[in-house]
Amino acid sequence: MANITLSRLTEDDREQFILDNQLAFKYGAMEEFGERDNHFEKDGEIISRKTIENSIDNGVAYRIREDGKIVGGLVLTINEETQHNHLDLLFVTPAVHSKGVGTAAWKEVERLYPDTKVWETCTPYFETRNIHFYVNKCGFHIVEFFNSHHPDPHDPETGEENSYEGEDFDGMFRFEKLMMTDVIRKRLPEKIGG
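The structure corresponding to this sequence follows.
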């Protein structure tokens, strides 16, 4: 396995980050649905520029590198007070899908943020590759399914309260991963041992 590292997104790489993210999401939808895909947003993308820009502007963005070469990216929202953190975006270049890059990148995120109590993320219901990745590779659990009968209370583009007026809503899974804190790690052997 190659060496996977994370480096903070630089302003001069911002535009390429957005384009790479859109390409990766579009590839996933085309792989799942082919040319008949109807999940594109108004701007012809699976994920809008506005959504990506909002995530970057309100979070911490990283480039995923394999032996120094850019192979993806991710954006996190870190709440220093509660340590209830959110993975806003994670994508890898389609050429490196199924090669352990995403899993290694996620392990690096967990290493960089050891005080996290809970990680949270969402993915569209049709992204079966993502669902497999989050549940089977990264240890997340599905905790909620947003759909027309149970809408996400927050707009993904703005983070503000969502009205859903006149919108069709396909569905998103919300995932959580509870992290083992140092306090639990220290006590665990005592309880197991006696």
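Residues 4 and 104 are 6 Å apart (CA to CA).
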